[in-house]
Amino acid sequence: MALDGIVLSNITAELSEKLTGARISKIAQPEADELLLTLKSTSGQYRLLLSASASLPLIYLTQTNKPSPMTAPNFCMLLRKHIANGRITRIWQPGLERIIHFEIEHYNEMGDLCRKDLIIELMGKHSNLIFCDDTGMIIDSIKHVGAMTSSVREVLPGRPYFIAVTQEKADPLATSQEEFCTVVFAKPAPLAKAIYTSYTGISPLVAEEICHEAGVESSQSARSFDELAMTHIYHIFERMIQEVKEKQFSPSIFYEDADEQVPVEFSSLPLTLYENVRHFDSPSEMLEQYYAMKNTLTRIRQKSSDLRRIATTALDRCRKKYELQLKQLKDTEKRDKYRVYGELIHTYGYDVPPKAKSFEALNYYTGEMITIPLDPTLTPQENAQKYFDKYGKLKRTFEALSELTRDTKAEIEHLESICAFLDMALAEEDLVQVREELTDAGYIRRRNTGKKVKITSRPYHYLSSDGYDIYVGKNNYQNDELTFRLASGSDWWFHAKGVPGSHVIVRAKGAMPSDTTFEEAARLAAFYSKSRGADKVEIDYVEKKHVKKPNGAKPGFVVYYTNYSMMIDSDISQIRPASD
Description:
By secondary structure, this protein is α+β, with helices and mostly antiparallel strands. It is built from twelve helices and 21 strands. The protein has helices at 5-19, 74-83, 177-184, 191-196, 204-214, 227-245, 283-331, 335-348, 380-424, 428-440, 476-486, 515-527, and strands spanning 23-31, 34-41, 44-51, 58-62, 87-92, 99-107, 113-121, 128-132, 138-141, 252-255, 263-267, 277-279, 358-363, 368-373, 460-463, 469-472, 492-496, 504-506, 537-543, 564-568, 576-577. The strands form five sheets. It has a seven-stranded antiparallel β-sheet with strand order 20-19-17-18-16-15-21, sandwiched between helices. It has a five-stranded antiparallel β-sheet with strand order 5-6-7-8-9, covered by helices on one side. The protein has a four-stranded antiparallel β-sheet with strand order 1-2-3-4. The model has no long low-confidence stretch (mean pLDDT 90).
């Protein structure tokens, strides 16, 4: 989600506490639309990242330094000239606008004390960093906006600075119940949209949370609520705004699953919309962690896009081939009919008159009378031989297609498992073995570089509540390694039934694990499978000694003929990873 006014209020409070009175010791511009300020205060040194990127505007404190270009850009040089060694006297946010002001005191060339204003506007594609003097006149900005670009406001040196008003929105910090009901419930729009389009700084996420806490549908028309419901909704809105006024923030990241690997949203207020949450001590830490994880996932998806394209293309081809083979296989079902025709002609052919086009005979297999078509230009013996030839051809086709369909189905299952593991990959090293598997299977041409592929990815390692080691494969090669190299015969093996997924091994240590350990291993098998997220997943489990790998089987493919099953959810939030 984008930064809203409430998160920025949280950031402003943090920056005011830590940076008021701090001196600017270094100014860098690592990107065309980004500043990195190094500040020193009595409590220590800080780095402040300010990004006016159109796609990802950000502001937070960080410990990470960034390399700067050899030649500083003009805007950076201007700031160094004016406010290097300047002192931040005030940090403030106008209302709940997505704007933060940094008031800075510094001495000019004459030794006179001056004041400047560095303003960051975090408004999506309109984001900007603007440097003003003490009269509110723009000295310069990191992005110049002329009249040809915007008819609302010019952001150019020598122009007065003001906040562009493009939408008629009220200030939530100064609203009343009467105003709220008048503004929101008069709009012919869904309730959530009516809320966030009526007030500055309120994001769609916060509006959805208000509806969720009120127990009403966010898609319900704002005009359809009675007075009692309107009052109830306002009180929830008022409580949230009061938390903002009193700086009662709770910076948190909300995750797709309990393993906290895929972040979905972040907020500075508690949200009841999501179950999987992680709290942070500061909004800067929250934002840095959120976008670091998002960037990692984006990079992994980009890195895996080529592999995914290769796998899905091959999978589509195999599925089309499989459908054609099944259709051809169905055509061979009439082979036995031709064999019966040939046998009956041999049996009763002496009664067939010359040049007959058909004749009726008793089918001694079923006891029914059937009509057998004949070629009048052939003798009965020749007609019989013709049917036997058809039978033989269809029989050979059936035998060949039966083997081909088995091979094609195995290839489809193999490619489906590769696609599932690509979806589960969370690090670049997880993709190396998947690429190697596609290469070994012939889908990717191997490059003769003379270097051996370095494998650093290792299976997941968890500890059950009872202290049993549980291992989870990240791909088919790791599945084979866990099942046939790591596991002993008395260890327990788990897998989601009928869908691609990881092999899960419980090291039994010569004992019988408890029911709790079995359930935790089953949850891991459900989570690391294509059925992740389902309410109930069927899991097969068996002692490893009963799991076999057929000769010539694809990586990760096994068979077992005796097993137990259980239905389980895929919530692994209570299962702790091992420390290794």
